[in-house]
Amino acid sequence: MKQITDFTIVERKALGEAYFTLTLQHPQTLPPIEAGQFVEVEVRDCNDVLLRRPISIHDVDTEHNTLTLLIQIVGKGTRKLATLQVGDTLNLVYPLGHGFSLKGERPLLVGGGAGIAPLLHLAKCYNERGIRPTILLGGRTERLIPARDAFTPYGTLLLTTDDGSLGEKGMVTQHSRFNDNYDHICCCGPTPMMRAVGRHALQHDIPCELSLENMMACGIGACLCCVVKSDGGHLCVCKEGPVFEATKLTNWIDS
Ligand SMILES: Cc1cc2nc3c(=O)[nH]c(=O)nc-3n(C[C@H](O)[C@H](O)[C@H](O)COP(=O)(O)OP(=O)(O)OC[C@H]3O[C@@H](n4cnc5c(N)ncnc54)[C@H](O)[C@@H]3O)c2cc1C
Ligand code: FES
After folding, report:
1. Which domain, by its residues, includes 244?
2. Is residue 152 a contact partner of residue 167, using CB atoms and an 8 Å limit?
3. 98-107 pLDDT tens trace
4. CATH number at residue 82
């Protein structure tokens, strides 16, 4: 059941210059939240930003009724959100979209950039099923792999950077353990990363889910601005996704 409601910011952490987290508390019990679902955040007092901004749910704490968002500063809306302080309120529409299926016994979670965000809640959900996933995070350089320490309790953490400043040098698909015997892959990150991971999964017949981060406006399936061409027609990313099986996205992966 979707809600439109105010949360109070109870923690704000800067993660270098480009990223920050906001932990938001609600006085009432949170609804069930699937890993991979997202919120539409209202950006207040910013004349140029009329539409809400879609942001993945990074972490959920049901004991304290908190959600954490991991946000990359890329434009006007996220820059405004970065000015919020503890005690401020933030209006969210949530939980939106369909999340990851939590299939597999030996899952590999792959993330890059702001696409790392949904993978923490995902890793924790696998842990609740008694499964410790392998988590492979990649970035151009060390400071562009945010929040990585948060993952270590929940799985085997592997890292790659293009410049070799952290983990193995190269792209995630070049990591020495990328070809280990995984039975499921979940990926969220920049489009070239998701295409490469999806192509690998299709070629090796490994079930794979990709979480698309298309531009969105309404977030509820009304404006159709987030549609992608799929094998059987078109997919509305905000409503039918953002998580899709790679087998439904072969056109997108090859485009
Ligand atoms: C389902 C979903 C989940 C997302 N989760 C997160 C998250 O957890 N953390 C996070 O930091 N970001 C996330 N994003 C991306 C985030 O929504 C955009 O970065 C944000 O809306 C940009 O707003 P802005 O006003 O700061 O930028 P704008 O001023 O609107 O744009 C600035 C620049 O960012 C680019 N941009 C805008 N939207 C996107 C987008 N969706 N993807 C890539 N580039 C974009 C624009 O092309 C432009 O170059 C998610 C997007 C989707 C669709
Ligand atoms: S954002 Fe409006 S239909 Fe998806």
Report:
1. 107-254
2. no
3. 999 999 999 9
4. 2.40.30.10
